[in-house]
Amino acid sequence: MPEYPTALGASSRDRITLLGTDLAQDVMGQVGFGELAFWLATQRRPSTGETRVFEAVLAALADHGFTPTAIVTRLTYLSAPDSVQGALAAGLLGGGSRFLGVTEDCGRFLHEQLREAQLPPDDAGWDELALAVLEDHRGKRIPGLGHHVHKDGDPRTPRLFQIAREENLIGPHLSLFAAIGRVHPQVLGRTLPLNGAGVCGAALADLGLPLALLRGFALLARTAGLIGQLAEELRNPVANEIFLSVDLNNTSVPPSPHDNGGQDG
């Protein structure tokens, strides 16, 4: 028979091991969920400071009001109250380039800029690098820059920088992101906030978490928020009102042919 080695969960008749430890005795009641999520992804137990930064990221991304992910979760539950998993999945599937996916996009973007860069020794050097990055991407979207609501500053951003600084975990990704925040008006001609999803991506990258999983951590956080949305929907339902506001106020108009570039089919 083939063997399938794993360092994660494995069961025998009377014991469950997880990450090389006894699940019942060494993990349950001993390890917090955030610490465990980090440990599962990296297969190394995080330090106290790393756990604090990681859990701050999860808290920052858990819920942000009636975003599309929250609305679609509530509406899906309205349509299929027998399928909580369907409602949660619907909300998570909306984690893309405009909501939640920015965490991964920003982490990847910063990592790519740092790939061949020599790390500057001070803020002035980081500002110089940030200016070069912005010039190279003039006219292109910079992940993590700007927010549709927090136009004067995202309150999550300075707080996460503060926590990372207190834990001595300001690494190159956060350093470059902060520099972009300082110098971008010189290139763009206007001031935009560094958004919370972006700073979360920078912080996760500095923790050494796999870039390919950054969106997964955002979705992990948002799962808790979507459960909260469903719990509130049970107590104070609004999904039916949202549905009826569209259903009872739509207007029938003639078809509007679109230009398909001269291609048929």
Q: Any overview of this molecule?
A:
With 265 residues, the chain is an all-alpha fold. Among the domains are: 8-45, no CATH class; 101-210, Cytochrome P450-Terp, domain 2 (Cytochrome p450-Terp, domain 2), CATH 1.10.230. Helices cover 56% and strands 3% of the residues. It has a 3-stranded antiparallel sheet with strand order 1-2-3. Helix 4 packs across helix 11 (214-235), helix 5 (84-93) crosses helix 11 and helix 8 (156-166) runs parallel beside helix 10 (196-206). The radius of gyration is 22 Å and the shape is flat.
Quick overview of this protein structure:
This protein is mostly helical. The chain contains 12 helices and 3 strands.
